[in-house]
């Protein structure tokens, strides 16, 4: 799965698997009596399942077969969960008419590039692999600009804020927590020289962005942010 995703992101696309669809045209397989004579039948989409991971192994972009419990796939899975969480937060925010929804969509696209880099372990990557899946510092700097822009509009932070402030804000806080977990999965890969350091920087900055954005969403919706109150003994 991850190798196919990296291939698509790297611009190589996906080839139809050899199977019924791949053998279309041989012995008339895949054709229909309803197909007009002399016209090829409509192209079919590749099957979503490949069965290649049934034994507990999966492939990286470099072609390595690794156990699914490998820390590369842990990091890829956490990044995928993060994109899903941000997608949910974006839907809630869209319902409220927030203008930052476009930024969240861009972040999800950047996370696909993060995954492409993670799926290309540097220890086995050739130069062609690295060129296709490199991750620059530019997205990190863009996040910093967004953070500064929203921070200037927020009241000073004087207490520990609990995830709250309406559905948009709470979903963004949840995304922030998932982002922290993804970062914890990625850092060991960076330290081992398997992933680009800018990937870890991006996730670190992204969690800050999501925190600031959660506060901004609560402010724009007029929702109260719950703060930590020490329980009485």
Automatic annotation (TrEMBL):
Annotated segments matching region Disordered: 13-65
Keyword ATP-binding: yes
GO MF term list: ATP binding; corrinoid adenosyltransferase activity
Reactions this protein catalyses: cob(I)alamin-[corrinoid adenosyltransferase] + ATP = apo-[corrinoid adenosyltransferase] + adenosylcob(III)alamin + triphosphate
SUPFAM superfamilies linked: Cobalamin adenosyltransferase-like
Bias (Polar residues) ranges: 52-62
Coiled coil: none
GO biological process: one example: cobalamin metabolic process
Ranges of residues in domain Cobalamin adenosyltransferase-like: 48-217
Gene3D superfamilies: Cobalamin adenosyltransferase-like (1.20.1200.10)
Keywords: ATP-binding, Nucleotide-binding, Transferase
Family: Belongs to the Cob(I)alamin adenosyltransferase family.
Role, per record: Converts cob(I)alamin to adenosylcobalamin (adenosylcob(III)alamin), a coenzyme for methylmalonyl-CoA mutase, therefore participates in the final step of the vitamin B12 conversion. Generates adenosylcobalamin (AdoCbl) and directly delivers the cofactor to MUT in a transfer that is stimulated by ATP-binding to MMAB and gated by MMAA.
NCBIfam families in the cross-refs: PduO_Nterm
Quaternary state and interactors: Homotrimer.
Protein name: Corrinoid adenosyltransferase MMAB
Organism: Pipra filicauda
């Amino acid at each position: 799965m991850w190798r196919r995703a990296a291939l698509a992101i790297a611009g190589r696309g996906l080839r139809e698997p050899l199977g019924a669809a791949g053998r279309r045209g041989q012995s008339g397989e895949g054709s229909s009596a309803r197909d007009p004579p002399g016209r090829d039948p409509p192209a079919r989409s590749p099957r979503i399942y490949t069965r290649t991971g049934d034994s507990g192994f999966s492939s990286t972009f470099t072609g390595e077969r690794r156990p699914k419990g490998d820390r590369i796939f842990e990091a890829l899975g956490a990044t995928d969960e993060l994109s899903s969480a941000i997608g949910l937060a974006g839907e809630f925010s869209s319902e409220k008419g927030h203008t930052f929804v476009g930024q969240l969509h861009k972040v999800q696209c950047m996370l696909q590039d993060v995954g492409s880099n993670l799926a290309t372990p540097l220890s086995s990557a050739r130069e062609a692999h690295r060129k296709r899946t490199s991750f620059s510092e530019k997205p990190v700097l863009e996040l910093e600009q967004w953070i500064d822009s929203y921070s200037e509009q927020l009241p000073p932070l004087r207490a520990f804020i609990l995830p709250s402030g309406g559905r948009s804000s709470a979903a963004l806080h949840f995304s922030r927590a998932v982002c922290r977990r993804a970062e914890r999965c990625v850092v060991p890969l960076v330290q081992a020289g398997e992933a680009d350091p800018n990937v870890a920087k991006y996730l670190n900055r992204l969690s800050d962005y999501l925190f600031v954005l959660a506060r901004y969403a609560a402010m724009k919706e007029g929702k109260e942010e719950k703060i930590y109150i020490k329980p009485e003994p």
